[in-house]
Structures are given as structure tokens and as C-alpha cells.
Write a sequence for this structure.
């Protein structure tokens, strides 16, 4: 009984083509898993406030934290006006004068 080398070569060619197809499909599924994982991480990271509360559960502490937060937000507005020099008094007079000797 002799084996034909053509049958062995054809089987190896078929296996190598199948492994290339399998490799391509595994790469495709790995890429899809990576994209899905990144999408899930972005979705979870945008809703962190729902999972991790930023204020205390104790009412007294929570009121204190809310007061601090509102004071900080009020200070931001003051800083913004100071940066753009909106808090300085205006040197312009509401009534325009001639400016020269009358």
C-alpha cells in the first residue's frame, strides 16, 4: 500500500487555508471584543456619579458638602469676572461731556 503524495499535499494545503481563515476570524472577533470593551468602559465612565455617590449618606455631612460646593461654584463666577476685569468699576460717565474748555 503506497500513499500518494498528492493527497497529502492537498490535505496540507486545505489545512493551511483553513488555519488562515480561522486566524482571520479570531482576529476579527478579538477586534470586535476590544471595540465592545472600549465602548462599555466609556459608557460606564460617563455615569460614575450614579455608581459612586459624590456626597455622603449622612444628612448633616451632605448638607455641609453641598454648602461647600455651592460656595465654590459662586467663587468660580467671581474669578471669571475678575479674570475678564468685569468686576472693576467703570470710569466712563453715564453723561458724555465735551471734554474741552467751554
Amino acid at each position: 500500500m503506497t500513499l500518494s503524495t498528492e493527497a497529502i499535499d492537498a490535505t496540507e494545503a486545505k489545512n493551511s487555508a483553513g488555519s488562515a481563515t480561522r486566524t482571520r476570524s479570531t482576529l476579527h472577533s478579538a477586534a470586535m471584543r476590544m471595540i465592545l470593551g472600549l465602548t462599555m468602559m466609556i459608557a460606564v465612565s460617563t455615569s460614575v456619579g450614579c455608581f459612586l455617590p459624590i456626597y455622603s449618606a449622612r444628612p448633616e455631612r451632605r448638607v455641609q458638602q453641598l454648602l461647600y460646593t455651592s460656595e465654590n461654584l459662586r467663587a468660580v463666577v467671581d474669578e471669571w469676572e475678575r479674570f475678564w476685569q468685569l468686576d472693576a468699576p467703570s470710569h466712563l460717565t453715564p453723561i458724555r461731556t465735551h471734554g474741552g474748555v467751554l
Q: What stands out?
A: The chain has two domains: 1-50, 53-88. The chain has a mean pLDDT of 77. Residues 53-88 form one domain.
